[in-house]
Design brief:
The complex is a heterodimer of chains A (168) and B (463). Chain A has 168 residues and is mostly helical. Chain A is built from seven helices and three strands, in the order H-H-H-H-H-H-E-H-E-E. In chain A, strands 1-3-2 form a three-stranded antiparallel β-sheet, covered by helices on one side. Classes of the chains: A mainly alpha (168), B alpha+beta (463).
Chain lengths: 168, 463
Amino acid sequence: MKKNRPDTGSKSRTGRIATIMVAALILCGFMLIITDLVFKPGSVFAQNSNISDVQLLARAINGEARGEPYEGQVAVGAVILNRTKHPDFPKTIAGVIYQPGAFTAVDDGQINVPIDSGSTVVRAAQDALNGWDPTYGCIYYYNPATATSSWIWSRQVVVKIGKHNFAR
Amino acid sequence: MSIRDKLLDFKRRLSDRKMYSIVITLIAAVALWGVYQYKRAANLRQELDNQYNRAFYEMVGYVNNVETLLAKSMISTTTQKTAITLQEAWRQATMAQTNLGQLPVSQPVLASTSKFLTQVGDLSLTLDNQNIKGTKLSDNQYKTVEKLYNYSAALNKSLRDLQSDLGTGRLRWGELASKGTKLFSKTSSKNMMKKIETLNTTFQDYPTLIYDGPFSDHMTTAEARGLTGDTLNSEQAKEKVKKFLGEGNVAEIKDVGKNDSGPIKTFSYNVKLKNAPEDQDVNIGVSQKGGHVVWMLRNRTVGEKKLDIDQAKKAGRDFLAEKGYESMEDTYYMTQDNVATINYAYSQKGVTIYPDLIKVKVALDNGEIVGIEAKTYLSNHTVREIPVPKITQAEAKKKINENLELHGSGLAFIPTDYKKELFCYEFKGKLNNNDFIVYINALTGEEEDILMIVNTPNGVLTM
């Protein structure tokens, strides 16, 4: 039943603000809940515990260089393999890929994105494992448009492929 | 009703007591959910911290063992005991390095420590092999071990300082790893980084070691023996590229990069071909000296398979001969997606020279060469002096496991991890349904290497 309320003059503005704040709070709350449900930061995606080197390398390339030209994908794979042979880095492919902080695609979970059928990353991983190295032994690469660390900019750039600069 | 009326109506309804209680319940629910998320994040952080701590403490344990074992190896007198001690030192150094790679500290900060551990490991393994064969440490080697022992003692001390900081809870690993959750970060994380950086400075002046292990520094400065010809500029190199791919096929060559470091200095190009779509281009790297193709990749979708592997091998061999790489024999191959990747080794007077290796990718729809990788060949190729074997093939055969059913033999030069080449008898045989290749040194009679051939549906690989 509608009651006849007096026109709330001075109170109306604070009332309106309070209303908007409550509504905004509830909206934010729902958005947070939804994003949490959708992105599940705590769950683990890796399905198969016996992933072969080719598959692991291909998924790493998929995470890091999905849209890059074929040569760029082979180059990313080559960088990972060059690191296994370099004394500054872990000796295994898995060790290099999962070294904390080494690859942004690993840190944010993009390595778990499934590989499209028809994607060239598996072929690129195979070529890298077979010895093709468009980077001539580089162990670092970065995207000059997004890289912020001043340290990485100090490395000597050997070749630029697609969006990435490859450096030793 | 207009918008304003609707809003007023909504506001009126909010003021109603029932609405109040609904709104408050909603806020409480969101708050509870927030607390739950916070606690969950704290638990995950703790789990992560535990992992990092485990890696750190394990690493400290292993480095401690390395120090002790290096000291013992300097004292032991018999080669057997020295060998056992050094082998254990190698194992402990490897495990220390594995755990180092699991710590959430940025790469440049820990590079020297990782390098030190790797090189200690390799040196220990090399000296261990030497001791197994009965040779004691020379004076120089002894001094090197002593130097490494001193460095490992210094590393140990720095690690112990770090460890006590961790133990008193002043520093937490997880803080370093956190990205964006400022909730948990404290200023102490900056101090943590500084301490780990000092870990690194212990090694600023340690020598480049030269010995025979795979990570030995001199590996990266070896000369490229196969590079013949004059040093070219980029224009001349582009002419070589055109000749390699066929003058009539090239539409456009674009400079992509120049590599001036390493034993093979190169120009890199991206080539667009005539009569081919834009994205099916060729990427190619040629050496500055002589314009030799170091690597080439042609990205194109390959159609239905029309050639078998023997035709593919012939296509590859003909291509190599045409480009001036004579006398190449195929050794191993694999196929994937209708492309065969075939390894060719140089053959001199019937001796297979494995270090002079070129890999060729042959498309199985029309026999076109879609890839070539010649870095190894260009690094190693020379015409060698083939020595006279000091033992006969029959004598070499006696050294092989008698259960191996032999079905092929020959002579070969094989590469080793440390760039030396060994002249060997090559015996191919079968045991328990597994194919093996055994290499017996033709000059000393020692068993140098055993390869097990893995037969997969994609081709014949070695392991």
